[in-house]
What we know:
The chain is α+β, with helices and mostly antiparallel strands.
Amino acid sequence: MDVRSQISMLFHLDKCIGCHTCSIACKNIWTDRKGAEYMWWNNVETKPGTGYPTKWEDQNIYKGGWKKDDGESITLRGSGKYKGLLNIFHNPYLPLLEDYYEPWTYKYLDLIESPQGDDQPTARPVSLVTGKNIDIKTGPNWDDDLSGTPKYARRDPNLKNLSPAEQEAMFQLEKMAMFYLPRICNHCLNPACVASCPSGAIYKRGEDGVVLINQQVCRAWRMCVTACPYKKSYYNWHTGKSEKCILCYPRLEAGLAPACMHSCVGRIRYLGVMLYDADKIKDAASAPENELIDRQLDLILDPFNEEVIKNAKENGIADSTITAAQTSPVYKFVKTWGLGLPLHAEFRTLPMLFYVPPLLPVMASLSDIDNNAQAGKLDPIAKFWSRNTLYDTSTGSLWGTIDQARFPIKYMANLFGNGNEEKIKTVLKKQLAVRVHRRNVTVGDVKKEFSDKVLKDVNLTADMADDIYYLTSLAKFDDRFNIPPAHREQALEMLEYAGDTKGAAGFGFKETPARGL
């Protein structure tokens, strides 16, 4: 058992309001500079939709991630030693600038300095890359909220195995729905970008698992851009280096949450430590298609297990990190409650960003009831349900609403379940069960016997449901972000005498990235 620690994330999609505050926070701190204008290390996509860059999920186009050979091993789909050598001077699988968007600004001075004339002056858009006038055709979030459009929503790669009838049903006006999908680097356990780099510039930090690109070693071969199936590695055309999300590691080392998480309005983001067994990574990544998610979750170890704690300490994991793993909100969502699932596990990178699938609007069923007796008890000015119908509250009806969701379960399974619809149904049933339980506790219009039966059906207890409710709805900052001390002093001492490098603690190399040796 090779126990290691990993800073892991979880996004609760039922809470995302699509405000893009996270994207702006990240942009203002990290990519608001020359050569990085088109980069959005954090972006929020509307689903169904094609995303950013366009159709990034379609690996027939971009050849990202890993694929399983005829045997038990896996190889990079579009890069690697042999393929990389063949494509090292021409990589046909790179996304083009048009697949992202050409960044632009406006000639604002024209509004002020234009000579007097008969026409109102306008601020024309100009490219931030070429400086020339451009006609804006797309942007980083061009399909925001366009959940039914032919150009975007109906070209979503996740619709590939839905029948034409199922696809058409999704886009009927009265059933049309959408949800937001925020994305950052997944800081995977089996990162394809690390394996693909000919220069060895990309590495995974031993102390917390954050994946970084050494700007001094990077030679801009851009194999990482192809290899990352989530397209979260970018090329800076100004410095001639590749860049990616660094999970705000200088903030983490200071005990602060990453900027995108700190600024999240919907409070959908959770961050915490998880312990995993590195000896099982190869077997988990090369597992059969239908076992990938289960094998990935099996990697994650119980932080309360005495043997795990013993092995963790032997590997140099600090007591503070083990304690953080025991109180990690991500561990609770993913392992204890079974609510968190990885995005596109079929890419075999073992992503450490998990999602709670959204409980989308359902087509509820009604039963007949006589409301007149209840109406007689109310004050004449009070409002009441005038129709003699009531929402069904039987477990058969309740679980039936899952299958009547406005999105086919198959679509959600393509995103978060590797095609396994039962995994999505299980998570959605648990979310429904918590709502029923809280309805019984707070409103009292659901009988306790019914609430208990619903919880039992999904293997939850009342205490677990209350814990889920608290961490979902009422969690404070420290509940959502459990950040252990970084112990950077130990990492520095492995490389050089710490007394001579006090000023570098927490920030690493300070040289400005530039072209050449």
